């Protein structure tokens, strides 16, 4: 086999099933597992699939699959009927569900089902993008950079060309969304052209407890028992969209060992990061990030526990923060694993050796790794100041408002194209809305206290920002004093300060404005330095990317970029807790877990599920696992068989999957999905949504 397609092995013993062809029989040459199997639709690994699974899809199959998938903000979705029905996760539809909730309803908790088209509710905050085409524009983007340009000038030139390409593409037709996607960290640039649908209506959502059964304790784990599904319908011209590009439903479902594909938009991975970049994340960024999450979540839980009304308002925020905290903890765990890091070091050294062995490659790319290591050491030395010489004070609002007021006069005096984004004329209304927003003073004081506590721990007493913020006081006393004396909770006062310009902000005795005046010059200096270093790092990243493509060709999948990918895998058990995790869970397990915990939060059930216990077919598969390569952004991705039929819906991965963000392995990492058979059983038996189930099966 040529190096154009290198087969990534699955460890058969871990799967408990015999692959079609033993991995060692088809692997001839192989650069390591770190790059994963998130393949792009314009460069599908046809030889790999043929050798590994005996499956070679046609161009028509790939086009149909691409057009049947969709992207939505932060997640994936897919068309599942000829009448514009769309499937995604409940947790991807939360903002839509909240937006269509009427006074007196709690659709997130109780669920929703529109029995007729007339009852479907429009989600004003929802759109879906369908990928129409992919075109390589690498030469246009890289050709825009003048010879000898500095890293910052090169980045600016590329950015201008990318905007120009996108604008010219969008002008070619109605309802188009065009995006230039950076692949291989600048080694390639691809123009993705989407058809955007903006009339999206909610059809079905289960009760929130069924969608997130087990809550945060069960999140990123397996076995799981979640019905994390929702359905929209796309409308065009006021009528349900009529389309031939949709996934049909497999009533038979899957079996262990079956080949399955996940089609979705994985958000981001760092498998092409250098060891130095991974060490920066492990030792600098992630510890600070996790500390911030912990403080923020603690404040929100304290507020929620003291006030049921606040608890309802904070529900989505807490959900998102806890999910992010658990994810970052998992990412960091892989970087703390000496075996995984050693494997990454060996892979990088092998790659560098290949580059050094070729005089032409050595001359072009040989120094890039050392340059990145130097840059990351400088970034690490700046990180403490980057975090505190900032107006982003861990979720507080008023310091951000004060920073905007202090910076606005200087920014507004510049030509529009040279201003920071929020101050440009096109963002004027957004700026005014932000400044006119309401402040929850209790939450603000608690968040400010937590931020000042962290500052007191991290910054020396002589630091100018710490001196200005604390002034010798305790964090609690300083926060209370600032909140008692500020005028920024009054939108009229904020407006007056904005209109008064530099003189007004300079004369203000508001404690937040005074602190912002101290932070402003320091923030500008640190931000400029960090930006320069990041531009230089991006230039070196691009060199390594070009070396990667020169050495390995298209056998190495690009990192995730929230662009449409297709990942192959098999339904497979895996070693777990001294035993083996079965590839499927069933409704038997759901009710057993409910019983075992006495129906206590977060393993309680709503009454409709309790009432359905004696009616539901308890042996029906509920959730399942497979070896497909996913990451955040894949939520809502369809799981399909080789006939392009739905067998499941991705909603999570196990905890062992999280280190795959940087260091890819299939041994115990698994994608977790709702089984298609379980979806049909729940729709019919628990929710009385027989018409919806029939539509999925094409029985309208």
Topology of helices and strands:
Elements: H1 12-15, H2 23-26, E1 39-40, H3 46-53, H4 59-68, E2 69-72, E3 75-79, E4 85-88, H5 94-99, H6 107-110, E5 112-113, E6 121-122, E7 128-136, H7 138-143, H8 151-170, E8 176-183, E9 188-197, E10 200-205, H9 208-211, H10 215-218, E11 230-236, E12 239-240, E13 248-249, E14 259-264, H11 275-306, H12 308-336, H13 338-357, H14 359-365, H15 368-388, H16 398-412, H17 428-435, H18 441-458, H19 464-470, H20 475-485, H21 491-507, H22 511-552, E15 565-570, E16 574-576, E17 579-581, E18 584-586, H23 587-596, H24 607-612, E19 621-626, E20 638-640, E21 645-653, E22 671-675, H25 676-686, H26 690-696
Parallel strand pairs: 13-21
Antiparallel strand pairs: 1-15, 2-3, 3-4, 4-11, 5-10, 6-10, 7-9, 8-9, 10-11, 11-12, 14-15, 14-20, 16-17, 18-19, 19-22, 20-21, 21-22
What are its keywords?
700 residues, 26 helices, alpha+beta, globular
Walk me through what this model shows:
With 700 residues, the chain is of the alpha+beta class. The chain contains 26 helices and 22 strands. Strands 1, 13, 14, 15, 18, 19, 20, 21 and 22 form a nine-stranded mixed sheet that branches. Strands 2, 3, 4, 5, 6, 10, 11 and 12 form an eight-stranded antiparallel sheet that branches. A hairpin with a 5-residue loop joins β3 (75-79) and β4 (85-88). α8 packs across α22. The longest helix is centred in the last third of the chain and has 42 residues, at 511-552. The radius of gyration is 26 Å and the shape is globular.
């Amino acid at each position: 086999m040529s190096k154009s397609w290198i087969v990534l092995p699955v460890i058969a013993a871990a799967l408990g099933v015999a692959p079609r062809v033993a991995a060692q029989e088809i692997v001839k040459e192989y650069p390591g597992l770190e790059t994963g199997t998130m393949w792009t639709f314009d460069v599908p690994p046809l030889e790999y699939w043929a050798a590994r699974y005996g499956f070679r899809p046609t161009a028509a199959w790939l086009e149909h699959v691409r057009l049947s998938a969709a992207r939505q903000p932060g997640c994936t979705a897919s068309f599942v009927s000829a009448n514009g029905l769309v499937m995604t996760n409940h947790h991807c539809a939360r903002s839509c569900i909240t937006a269509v909730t009427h006074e007196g309803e709690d659709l997130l908790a109780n669920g929703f089902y529109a029995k007729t088209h007339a009852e479907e509710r429009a989600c004003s905050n929802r759109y879906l993008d369908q990928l129409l085409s992919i075109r390589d524009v690498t030469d246009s983007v890289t050709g825009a950079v003048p010879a000898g340009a500095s890293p910052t000038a090169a980045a600016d030139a590329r950015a201008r060309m990318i905007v120009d390409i996108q604008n010219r593409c969008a002008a070619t037709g109605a309802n188009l969304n065009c995006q230039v996607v950076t692949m291989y960290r600048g080694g390639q640039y691809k123009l993705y052209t989407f058809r955007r649908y903006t009339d999206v209506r909610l059809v079905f959502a289960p009760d929130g407890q069924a969608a997130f059964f087990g809550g945060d304790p069960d999140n990123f784990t397996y076995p799981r028992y979640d019905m994390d599904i929702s359905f929209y319908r796309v409308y065009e011209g006021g009528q349900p969209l009529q389309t031939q590009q949709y996934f049909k439903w497999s009533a038979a479902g899957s079996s262990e060992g079956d080949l399955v594909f996940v089609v979705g938009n994985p958000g981001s991975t760092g498998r092409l990061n250098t060891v130095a970049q991974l060490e920066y994340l492990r030792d600098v960024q992630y510890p600070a990030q996790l500390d911030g999450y912990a403080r923020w979540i603690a404040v929100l839980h304290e507020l929620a526990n003291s006030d049921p009304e606040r608890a309802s308002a904070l529900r989505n925020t807490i959900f998102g923060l806890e999910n992010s905290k658990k994810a970052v903890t998992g990412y960091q765990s892989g970087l703390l694993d000496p075996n995984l890091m050693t494997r990454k070091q060996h892979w990088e050294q092998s790659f560098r050796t290949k580059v050094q062995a070729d005089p032409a490659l050595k001359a072009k790319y040989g120094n890039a790794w050392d340059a990145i290591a130097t840059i990351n050491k400088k970034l690490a030395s700046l990180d403490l100041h980057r975090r505190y010489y900032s107006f982003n004070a861990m979720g507080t609002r008023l310091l951000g408002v004060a920073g905007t007021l202090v910076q606005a006069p200087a920014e507004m005096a510049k030509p529009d194209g040279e201003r920071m984004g929020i101050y440009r004329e096109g963002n004027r209304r957004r700026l005014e809305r932000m400044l006119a927003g309401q402040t929850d003073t209790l939450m603000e004081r608690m968040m400010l206290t937590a931020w000042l506590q962290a500052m007191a721990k991290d910054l020396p007493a002589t630091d100018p920002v710490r001196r200005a913020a604390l002034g010798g006081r305790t964090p609690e006393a300083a926060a209370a004093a600032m909140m008692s004396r500020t005028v920024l909770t009054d939108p009229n006062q904020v407006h007056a300060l904005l209109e008064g310009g530099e003189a007004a902000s300079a004369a203000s005795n508001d404690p937040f404005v005074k602190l912002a005046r101290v932070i402003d010059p320091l923030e500008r200096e640190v931000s400029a330095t960090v930006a320069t270093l990041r531009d230089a790092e991006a230039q070196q990243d691009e060199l390594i990317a070009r070396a990667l493509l020169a050495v390995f060709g298209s056998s190495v999948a690009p990192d995730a970029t929230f662009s449409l990918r297709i990942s192959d895998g098999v339904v497979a058990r895996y070693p777990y807790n001294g035993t083996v995790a079965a590839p499927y869970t069933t409704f038997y397990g759901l009710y057993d877990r409910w019983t075992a915990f006495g129906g206590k939060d977060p393993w309680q059930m709503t009454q409709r599920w309790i009432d359905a216990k004696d009616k539901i077919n308890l042996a029906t598969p509920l959730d399942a696992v497979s070896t497909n390569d996913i990451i955040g952004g894949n939520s809502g991705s369809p799981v399909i068989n080789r006939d392009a039929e739905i067998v499941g819906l991705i909603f999570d991965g196990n905890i062992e999957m999280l280190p795959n963000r940087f260091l890819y392995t299939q041994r115990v990492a698994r994608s977790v999905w709702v089984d298609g058979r379980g979806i049909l059983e729940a729709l019919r038996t628990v929710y009385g949504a027989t018409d919806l189930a029939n539509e999925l099966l094409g029985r309208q």
